[in-house]
Amino acid sequence: MLKQLFLIVLLLSPSPALAWAEYAHRTIAGIAETNIDSTTKARMNDLFQSAALLGTPKCDLKNISDASVWPDCVRRDRLRWGYTSPWHYQNVDICKPFDLKNACRNGNCVSAQIDRNAALLKDKSLPAHVRLEALTFLVHFVGDMHMPLHSGDRSDRGGNDVSAAYGIIEGRMNLHWLWDGPLAERAITDGPEMVRHYSAEEKSDKSFGTTDFWAMQAWQISRDYSYPTAEDQPSCGPKMTARGKVDNDEISALIPIARLQIERSGLRLARLLEEALR
User: Fold this and answer.
1) Which residues contact 191 (CB under 8 A, 6 or more apart)?
2) What pTM does this model have?
3) Distances from the Cα of 44 to the Cα of 77, 85, 123, 218, angstroms
4) Is residue 9 part of a domain?
5) Alpha-carbon distance 223 to 242, whole Å?
6) Which CATH number goes with the domain that contains 155?
7) By residue range, what is the domain housing residue 152?
């Protein structure tokens, strides 16, 4: 009962729109770490020895789990890191054909930053702390991009401007946070353990594709599930003025979709880490 009361208080409290929330980001990092080879893991862990050179003592950076949430931690320091905020998302209109180019001008979007930071991490001529910074952004942004409302948008800041209720809990919640927080956390805990060794077949099935392809998948989910489920109407219908609601049956139907995105994110991150650190 105490745990349930805590969760209700948490959901009723205003929360910043941080991607996938901490629990999901750390779960994605755990999946990746469990599914990289020993050489990749050793080379990755060596980079954490240079964390002090980044000068962020208020944001822990001892391991890949810390790395998964470090970019959200440092961007609270707007003077130093505020310029990174547009890197966490890309607002691609779900009511038009998928067009990443217009949503990603000058590389200020999550897809471009995944490719950029993968390249920086791979460059062994760079100092260790520069590659470590690239590692943290890569780990975090792969998670960000797989959250559907960090790709899909209806001129509402990826659902941030859409009031929504999660089951019986009204709270001060929006559609973006619903997917970021309670739905992701329910998906992780409702089913088999997600942080585990995946078979070669599972890895092959879930980790293929390019960054642009992964972005399009997330955008399609936002178009086909995130918006219509909350608004109880087809995508791109009239914009709702009333609070949307995702009821318990709809939550149950969305859990497999959220779990799939988290698994994809972790296994795709593992692939990128092995490619960059081999």
Assistant:
1) 255, 259
2) 0.91
3) 26, 25, 13, 27
4) no
5) 19
6) 1.10.575.10
7) 15-277
